[in-house]
UniProtKB/TrEMBL annotation, chain B:
Designated name of the protein: Sugar ABC transporter permease YjfF
Annotated compartments: Cell membrane
Topology relative to the membrane: Multi-pass membrane protein
Biological source species: Shinella sedimenti
Chief location: membrane
Transmembrane regions: 6-26, 38-57, 63-81, 88-111, 117-141, 162-180, 211-236, 248-275, 295-314
UniProt xrefs under InterPro entries: ABC_transp_permease
Keywords, comma-separated and alphabetical: Cell membrane, Membrane, Plasmid, Transmembrane, Transmembrane helix
Pfam short name (any one): BPD_transp_2
């Protein structure tokens, strides 16, 4: 067998240059028929740039792409699709207002006498989806189905349209375990049909679960392509980070042995009906208190009430013995509180404003609009934090939406740091960003608490919580059910606290 | 019931109830004469509203159609007054100009990534200005062909007249329904209304579709202008001011979502008929000021905007629970 023909897709020496940055530098990538090939890398490593070059969303500046042995040069995603390269994105890219059948056949509806034959289209749609064990009403609007089902419909469409290469760009980000299993069954079946599948994710377990080979990119360069079976996880992480994250985190844990000082912030019977049950909380300066719990257990609600986004209807809050006014976010900011919300796209960044403007936003809000921060001061602040937090942007005036997730998160963090807060709440600071940025954010959290800041960190990444928290509060059903201190703070103890609280409930 | 049919059902129900109330008060309103007049009097608005429906379904807006209708009227009047050209040739010329005008606005919206609101607002001033350049006076049209076209009608049982222009409006609605629901172009229009970025990723030819949508709106505004000149036998540059807003009202009352992506061309017909019905009722009453039409339309619009908001909230909640 000739080596050329065993690859359905092979790209060599792909270059992509953006103004001021080289996004891809001579990257090679190959994909065999019937292979699931995981593409991994940190934020900004060039994964999505490579995908966009393959699908024609970007024009590459150098290199060759061979599809089935012939050179191709797609000018747009549509052309790539016709050539046989289909893509399914993290956010389902179908139209919620059209029916399932219309989504599947948009642009290629079966026609009779020049008019769309809706009956034939619906019949074909049912036949197509039955290959994926999906028996649904194809005449219903897409929006009436769950994200997992929509994802399968998107895959069905992409495979039906292209049929040689399927690119899955973080398809599992918003799915639960059961749905991921369903998706993987489908991916395996497509693989058996001989499709080449490129799989992008930050869930390493999923990579080991489904992929045959792994390609790692870092800073626009190819680090290597390996067989999954022959690549230990530790080595994979090392390839992705170029340093040992696991080691660093565990070491950080050891330095955390210091005893927390006297409580500075005291909350007594703090709560709000229907939101979070009254709780007591003490936080010393320089202390990180972690909050753990399942989704919907009241983690975010706790953060909101501490920041005044929801007003507490019971209890007291004081700092250094003085009562705190936490009646609104404005009041909380005046009390030197800061809050990085969970969903940065919705509640955090202002996408069209520049990195600089996003960073000075909270500080300006606290000073009031009557006293504007001078441009030179803004520039100084922005440059300071871009450097201090290592925010990767070509320029401080770049619209923040053009930055990768991890860098956006750092910019939001910078926004609050610029206000010199004494009490900072971070809600899922590492969600949706990849491993390398995780380590950087964790390191940042540790630096902040060394400076004497009090931190509340909410996270579903238990290992991370354990790494930086001196205490962990465990939440369940909108109540604080356990508090773990010092030696007790381990992943197992947290899981146990959540589980035992569950069993301990009456009924 | 599928919630996408809810606004349309509400529109039909409102029309039937309103009509029943009218008949209860004025039994004469249940006659083919009234229905025939309803169609004739609202023909130009209905035709323009079909174009507006496509524009709004795609998530856009076309503010130029009132001005384009006036321009077409003046253009025809001037052409027929000062040259010996046959009206049919003049019609064709007018349609070519207005279609090209719409296509140009569509091209600007797409290629310069300008909001439709601004581009068609500019188009509105431009078309109105062009009408003034042609003539500032109201010019009567006395061509014999016009007289013969106007005398052409189909007598409905009961003595009502389905005039040429009333029938033309119904044909335009039928063709509009076919285009919206049974062609790939129609599906592309809905796709655009669902989200331009997603539609592009799904391979919808955004540029071509946008240009075609505004060209269609321009064509129908031109056709509406021809119908209006037949209806009034004159061309006047100050005519049909604000008709684009009446058309938008008819589309929204007809159950189309102002944000695009959801609605039916057939709903717009009912929206037109509801507006016409209110007008007819006021004529029958004789003592009410015609401003009551505007007030009732305003209230209806509010009601439909609230209904749309409720539907959006409902579907959001369904999605979250799905």
């Amino acid at each position: 067998m000739q080596s050329v023909s065993s690859y359905v897709l092979s790209a060599t020496g792909i270059d992509k240059i953006f103004p001021g940055a080289r996004a891809l530098n001579g990257v090679d990538f190959s994909l065999a028929r019937g292979e699931v090939h995981a593409l991994l890398g940190e934020n900004g490593a060039g994964k999505s740039t490579l995908i966009k070059c393959l699908t024609g969303a970007y024009r590459r500046d150098g290199g060759r792409i061979l599809l089935d042995g012939t050179e191709v040069d797609p000018h747009n995603t549509l052309e790539a699709q016709k050539l046989g390269i289909g893509t399914v994105y993290q956010e389902v890219n179908l139209l919620a207002n059209l029916t399932v059948a219309e989504n599947l056949f948009l642009g290629r509806q079966p026609r009779r006498f020049g008019l769309v034959d809706a009956r034939a289209m619906n019949k074909q749609a049912r036949a197509l989806l039955s290959q994926y064990d999906l028996d649904i009403d194809v005449t219903a609007e897409l929006s009436s189905f769950s994200v997992a089902v929509q994802q399968v419909i998107a895959i069905a469409r992409a495979v039906d349209l292209s049929g040689k290469v399927l690119i899955l760009d973080e398809p599992t980000a918003s799915l639960d375990t059961h749905e991921v299993a369903m998706l993987f069954r489908i991916v395996r079946r497509l693989k058996d049909r001989g499709l080449g599948i490129i799989f992008i994710t930050h869930f390493l377990e999923q990579v080991y679960d489904i992929s045959d080979r792994i390609t790692v990119l870092r800073n626009g360069q190819l680090v290597g392509t390996r067989d999954t079976a022959a690549l230990p996880r530790r080595e994979l992480i090392a390839m992705m980070l170029g340093r040992e994250l696991v080691h660093e985190v565990s070491e950080a844990k050891q330095s955390e042995a210091k005893a927390p000082g006297a409580a500075r912030f005291r909350f007594r019977g703090f709560g709000r009906k229907g939101h979070i049950q009254p709780f007591d909380l003490d936080v010393a300066s320089g202390e990180v208190v972690g909050i753990a719990g399942l989704l919907g257990s009241g983690r975010t609600e706790t953060a909101e009430i501490l920041f005044g986004a929801e007003r507490a209807d019971s209890g007291t809050a004081e700092v250094d013995g003085r009562p705190l006014d936490l009646s609104s976010p404005r009041a909380a900011i005046r009390e030197k509180f800061g809050f990085c919300p969970e969903d940065r796209k919705v509640d955090g960044i202002v996408g069209d404003l520049s990195v600089r403007e996003n960073i000075v936003l909270a500080l300006q809000a606290r000073r009031g609009w009557a006293r504007p921060i001078s441009r030179s001061e803004q520039d100084r602040l922005a440059d300071h934090y871009i450097k201090a937090l290592d925010i990767r942007t070509s320029d401080r005036e770049k619209p923040i939406r053009l930055l990768s997730g991890g860098n956006q998160q750092k910019a939001i963090l910078a926004r609050w740091l610029a206000t010199n807060p004494e009490f900072l709440i971070l809600d899922e600071p590492t969600r949706g960003i990849d491993v390398g940025a995780h380590a950087e954010i964790i390191r940042l959290i540790e630096t902040l608490c060394e400076k004497g800041m009090s931190l509340i960190v909410i996270s579903s990444e238990l290992e991370e919580l354990v790494a930086y928290s001196s205490r962990v509060l465990v939440l369940r059903d909108r109540a604080h059910v356990a508090e773990l201190t010092g030696e007790e703070v381990t992943t197992n103890a947290i899981v146990e606290a959540i589980a035992s609280a569950h069993e301990g409930r009456p009924s | 019931m599928n919630p996408r049919y809810l606004p349309l059902t509400a529109t039909v129900a409102i029309f039937l109830i309103a009509y029943a109330v009218c008949i209860a008060q004025y039994p004469n309103m249940l006659s083919t004469r009234v229905i025939g007049n309803l169609l004739t009097d609202n023909a130009f608005l209905g035709i323009a509203a079909v174009g507006m429906t496509f524009v709004i379904l795609s998530g856009g807006i076309d503010l130029s159609i009132g001005a384009v209708i006036a321009f077409t009227g003046v253009f025809l009047a001037v052409l027929l007054q000062s040259t010996a050209i046959h009206p049919l040739a003049a019609f064709a010329l007018a349609l070519i100009i207005t279609t090209a005008f719409g296509a140009m606005m569509g091209a600007i919206i797409h290629h310069l990534e300008m909001p439709p609101f601004i581009v068609t607002l500019a188009g509105m001033f431009l078309a109105r200005g062009m009408a003034f350049v042609l003539s500032i006076d109201s010019i009567p049209i006395k061509h014999p062909f016009y007289t013969s076209l106007k005398s052409f009608y189909y007598v409905l049982p009961g003595g009502g007249r389905l005039t040429l222009i009333g029938g033309l409006m119904l044909v335009v609605f039928l063709v509009g329904i076919l285009i919206a629901h049974r062609t790939r172009f129609g599906a592309d229009v809905y796709a655009l209304g669902g989200g331009t970025a997603t539609a592009r990723l799904m391979g919808v030819p955004i540029g071509r579709t946008t240009v075609m949508i505004y060209a269609l709106s321009g064509f129908l505004a031109g056709l509406s202008g021809i119908v209006f000149s037949l209806y009034t036998s004159a061309g006047y540059s100050l005519a049909t001011v604000g008709v684009e807003l009446d058309a938008i009202a008819a589309v929204v009352i007809g159950g189309t979502l102002l944000t695009g992506g959801s609605g039916f061309v057939a709903g717009t017909l009912i929206g037109i008929l509801i507006q016409g019905l209110i007008q007819t009722y006021i004529t029958f009453d004789g003592s009410l000021s015609s401003w009551w039409t505007k007030i009732l339309i305003g209230l209806l619009l509010f009601a439909f905007i609230l209904l749309q908001k409720a539907l959006i909230l409902l579907s959001d909640r369904r999605r979250r629970h799905a």
